[in-house]
Amino acid sequence: MSSKRTAPSLRTLRRIAVGAVAATALALSGCGSDSGGSSGEKAGGVSLQEIKDEGTITVATEGTYRPFTFHEGGSGELTGYDVEVMRAVADELGVEVKFEETQWDAIFTGLDAGRFDMIANQVSITPEREKDYLFSTPYTVSPGVVVVREGDTSIKSLDDLAGKTTAQSLTSNWFEMAKSAGAQVQGVEGWAQAVALLQQERVDATINDKLTFLDYETTEDDTGLEIAVETDEEARNAFAFRKGSDDLVKAVDEALATLQKDGTLAEISEKYFGEDVSS
């Protein structure tokens, strides 16, 4: 029995070629990249027309960052706030969405290499990242919080983190905040590991966005944790793209505006957080 095979699109061939070059360069250099971009070969931008021609947009996400991107019960369908917002955006664009799950510390490397068209993973907009990437309008706004064990009154401000040990993802904006406050930072892969270290009394605190903490408090039994400080800095989180993807970013922004206006973003927000966190 014979099967019909469809020739790969030009965009797919370009992704494979550039990804191979980037992987080779990374292997030869023996160094990785962080969320500020990489010094190796980068793929060019992707256009809206290329996405529409292929009918699919490929989106990077962790799949382990509840409530934003996770598997229900650990092994169920990929879901979460970011996942649902991205699916709604894809519907507005008239294309299918294909999620590619990867660890946070490798997510920008994959974007640079052309493995993904964009990232949907609570990426905070920072001046450093804006030098290397394009961003959509924010679809989540959340203040940062310093989380400690219940009853710990030694941390009442960011200044009190000086000399303390915090658990942070090394490529997050919260890592930069902890370092600037004078904290000793222990690197972790994400929120779950940071919380475990805090509960085990192996670190003094962790900084993250308030929404992550509130979700954790509502989905877990007695956590033994509390918010010690709410920072003035807000996390403005958006979809991230390679430079050169301008018309795709514009289309995504228009889709987000439509979803904001018709109440879809508010509805998804209420589902996960009990209030509208999209603006």
3D architecture notes:
With 279 residues, the protein is of the alpha/beta class. It folds into two domains: 169 residues, Periplasmic binding protein-like II (D-Maltodextrin-Binding Protein, domain 2), CATH 3.40.190; 94 residues, Periplasmic binding protein-like II (D-Maltodextrin-Binding Protein, domain 2, 3-Layer(aba) Sandwich). Strands 1, 5, 6, 7, 8, 11 and 12 form a seven-stranded mixed β-sheet that branches. A three-stranded antiparallel β-sheet has the order 2-3-4. A two-stranded parallel sheet has the order 9-10. Helix 3 crosses helix 9 and helix 3 runs antiparallel to helix 10. The radius of gyration is 20 Å and the shape is globular.
Short description:
The protein contains ten helices and twelve strands.
Q: Quick one: overall form?
A: globular
CATH hierarchy, class of the largest domain: Alpha Beta
Look at the structure and give the mean pLDDT: 87
Low-confidence stretches: 1-7, 16-39
Main sheet makeup? 7 strands, mixed
Count of structural domains:
2
For the CA atoms, what is the radius of gyration?
20 Å
CATH architecture of the largest domain: 3-Layer(aba) Sandwich
Tell me the CATH superfamily of the largest domain.
Periplasmic binding protein-like II
